[in-house]
Specification:
about 0% strand; two-stranded antiparallel sheet; Growth Hormone, Chain: A; 2 strands; mainly alpha
Length: about 500
């Protein structure tokens, strides 16, 4: 197996493990309690982190496409190490009140702001890992290996909340800064592992023609001779109104940005919601947080056979629509909030719906973007994180003034807008694709791929190949091909 693939699995698994311990759940609760139960403080830190991710993300992708990507990653490892040191110091230092620009604050909050700024800068370079990964996986085989990778990441994310639940059990089932701080410190220790894995990446291990964009394989000889389309590789047959396949990456990026704006208003505040509105105990919150990654791993893996049956875009559209409607239900039915089993069930279902499609969306992006531009397109994940974290600052103030119901409703509306942006992909992304030719093959007109007569049996065959570790067998193109998120997003943030 390509060494960059091994390095990506190691990096993503270890980083998801660390973030599951300190970032997804423990840190927002720590800041919320530290700053006298202030949702605004949580939103401000998230906004700062997202801004730094955006500022670092696109320049890092631009430099990576023009130099060596592994060198940029090594630079991000240094920033990451500094972020760990400052976070540890912020947790351990005694809290002291102070004034900054005539604003009352405290030293721990300011130190955490600095630490999260460094974390944001480091996160901005993480999408380069996805670019190296995409360059190391042949086109036509990405959906299976990407789904496997993101499923393993979700499983790694479950370990952190389980550890936090154990600490709460040992220290008493009540919210405590000391216990939350201990969880964050353990997460910092684990966060050293992905820094080490960064040095495993090597640009020289990337593939060449095997990773070409899927639009190349859809281009007929006649089209190439006549220069059809606005750019090489754009087929005539797939279109929606005035849009052609060249628009696919832009639609995906636009949808992700709107999703980021929507999700940032509420996602980081769900731990606060469970404390304030549903009145769940610490162990219950951590237990639910531990269950989410397992459910996401299962739902993400289930998306692959579903995509084979109905097509990638059809599967994504149906599931995204369900997620938006479930959150809208949560926003208007406040009586549900006092029914813990019901509200938790609805929350888990909408979380699965909104996050299980990431690998499929990323694969479509990688299939329609040339190799030379993948780092830049992957760096747009930083824009998603910026919109996600930037709107968190607004979400904190909105929740403080109007409550969670308003935040949930606005989030649901924006998520449905993002879903609508994806709808044209139904006509632009073929349900059946072929791999692009290698250097020893001649370019031929598209054959439309191999249609599966029985999508369920095809899905079962691929799943069996994956589980048995037979990646070569699983790489045979059927019905759909190529799946890459997240960081998503670079951070792996939920939506």
């Amino acid at each position: 197996m390509n060494k960059n693939i091994v390095a990506t699995f190691a990096f993503r698994f270890s980083s998801s493990l660390a973030q599951g311990i300190w970032d997804y759940n423990a840190l927002p609760q720590y800041i919320y309690i530290l700053e006298n139960y202030s949702s605004q403080a949580v939103g401000l830190i998230e906004g700062l982190q997202g801004t730094c991710t955006a500022l670092a993300g696109f320049p890092a992708g631009w430099v990576a496409d023009r130099t060596r990507r592994d060198r940029v990653l090594k630079g991000s490892a240094v920033v990451n190490a500094l972020a760990i040191v400052l976070t540890v110091y912020a947790v351990l230092v005694p809290q002291k009140d102070m004034s900054l620009l005539h604003i009352d604050t405290d030293n721990k909050f300011l130190l955490l702001c600095g630490a999260m700024a460094l974390w944001g800068a480091a996160y901005g370079s993480w999408p380069i890992v996805d670019s190296l990964f995409a360059d190391s996986v042949p086109t036509g085989g990405r959906d299976r290996i990407y789904t496997l990778m993101y499923s393993s990441n979700y499983l790694a994310s479950a370990i952190g909340p389980l550890l936090a639940a154990l600490l709460f059990y040992l220290r008493g089932n009540s919210w405590s800064l000391r216990t939350l701080g201990a969880v964050v410190l353990i997460g910092m220790a684990v966060a050293l592992i992905p820094i080490c894995t960064i040095f495993m990446f090597n640009d020289d291990n990337s593939l060449d023609s095997e990773t070409a964009p899927i639009t190349q394989s859809l281009l007929s000889e006649k089209d190439r001779e006549e220069g059809a389309g606005e750019r090489e590789g754009v087929p005539k047959g797939e279109r929606w109104l005035c849009l052609r396949p060249w628009a696919v990456p832009y639609l995906l990026a636009a949808s992700d940005t709107v999703y980021g704006l929507a999700s940032g208003m509420t996602i980081k505040f769900f731990p606060v919601f469970w404390i304030r509105e549903v009145e769940l105990s610490p162990m219950a919150v951590q237990g639910m947080a531990a269950a989410v990654p397992f459910l996401l791993a299962l739902s993400s893996y289930a998306m692959h056979p579903l995509a084979i049956c109905v097509g990638r875009v059809h599967a994504i559209s149906a599931v995204k629509l369900l997620g938006g409607l479930l959150l809208a239900w949560m926003s208007v039915d406040k009586g549900m909030w006092r029914n813990a089993p019901l509200v938790v069930t609805v929350y888990l279902l909408r979380t699965m719906a909104n996050n299980s499609t990431y690998a499929l969306q990323k694969s479509i992006l990688m299939d329609f973007v040339p190799k030379s531009a993948r780092a830049r397109w992957n760096s747009l994940d930083s824009l998603f994180v910026f919109s996600w974290s930037g709107s968190a600052a607004f979400g904190g103030f909105m929740i403080a003034k109007w409550g969670f119901g308003a935040a949930f409703l606005i989030t649901a509306i924006l998520q449905l807008v993002a879903w609508a942006i994806l709808v044209p992909l139904i006509w632009l992304v073929p349900r059946s694709m072929t791999k692009p030719p290698t250097s020893v093959q001649q370019m031929a007109p598209p054959t439309g791929g191999v249609e599966a007569e029985s999508c369920l049996s095809s899905a079962a065959a691929e799943s069996a190949a994956l589980l048995s570790g037979n990646m070569q067998a699983a790489a045979v193109p059927i019905a759909v091909t190529a799946t890459n998120m997240a960081s998503t997003s670079p951070v792996g943030s939920l939506r």
